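Ticket #4471: structure output looks truncated?

Reporter: J.K.
Steps to reproduce: submitted the chain below (138 residues) through the standard prediction queue, then opened the result file.
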Amino acid sequence: MNDNPFVGVWTYRSLLNIFDVNTDFNALEFGRGTLEIYEDAMQNLSGVIGGPGWSLALKGSREYGTPMRARFQGVGVVSGEQWIYDYEGYLVGHWPNGVQQVPAIVGSVIRTVPHSGGEPGTVSPAGVVASFYAVKAE
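Returned output as attached by the reporter:
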């Protein structure tokens, strides 16, 4: 049995931190994909995160505590450009009376280096911070 609760396949979504409650929910999307965390040495974290057309190798660490913490960096080459993102996430605690609760990680992500944007001629700047959550596949 694996004692690392981060190991496994997770559905990942990130949202821009926009204050205006009237912002259309679809306009908040920053990213989505699959997060896979591998078994690794005691405090290490490795894996991959990606979606259609992009994939980043993950390297970082995890810490026991309340809550448990994971901090990692995703690095990859996407369409000929280097992408680097940094992530910090916390394992959501178990609710004793929770109904159909599944493991979840909540946290923050920052674009560490700029890269081309989704539209030709646009740039996705470094320093943009978003919130993320990941739900573990059963």
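Triage note (M.O.): checked the attachment and the full token line is present. The chain has no helices and ten strands.
Status: closed, working as intended.
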